[in-house]
Backbone:
């Protein structure tokens, strides 16, 4: 009789451990899905930078259609202006740094942020 009780206790401990492993895996799967969605939004914002009106310094903000993710896109001039006394030829192009930032409230209860940056070439402001 004692052997049966010990066997049930061991079975219960094993089942609890297996449940915790599966639960942890599902939680991580949800977190990875959220990060994948944030990455897709950040990449999409970077890809759309300057397509409509050319690159201009400034910041734009918005939300995903489901309102779970908030994004911002910042465009700033990159590098130094050679200045008026420079003998270097002046080109009509400029380099811009574009920062895409996505934030959301994760399923784990914490605020999350994902950011991407790149350099793009565009027309110099007149």
Residues:
């Amino acid at each position: 009789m004692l052997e049966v009780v010990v066997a049930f206790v061991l079975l219960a401990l094993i089942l609890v451990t297996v449940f915790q492993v599966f639960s942890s895996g599902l939680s991580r799967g949800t977190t990875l899905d959220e990060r994948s969605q944030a990455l897709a939004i950040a990449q999409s914002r970077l890809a759309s930078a300057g397509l409509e009106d050319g690159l201009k310094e400034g910041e734009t903000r918005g939300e995903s259609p489901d309102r779970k993710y908030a994004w911002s896109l910042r465009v700033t001039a990159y590098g130094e202006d050679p200045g008026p006394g420079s003998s270097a030829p002046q080109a009509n192009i400029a380099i811009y740094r574009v920062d895409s930032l996505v934030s959301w409230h994760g399923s784990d209860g914490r605020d999350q942020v994902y950011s991407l940056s790149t350099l793009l070439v565009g027309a110099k402001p007149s």
In short: The longest helix spans residues 2-48.
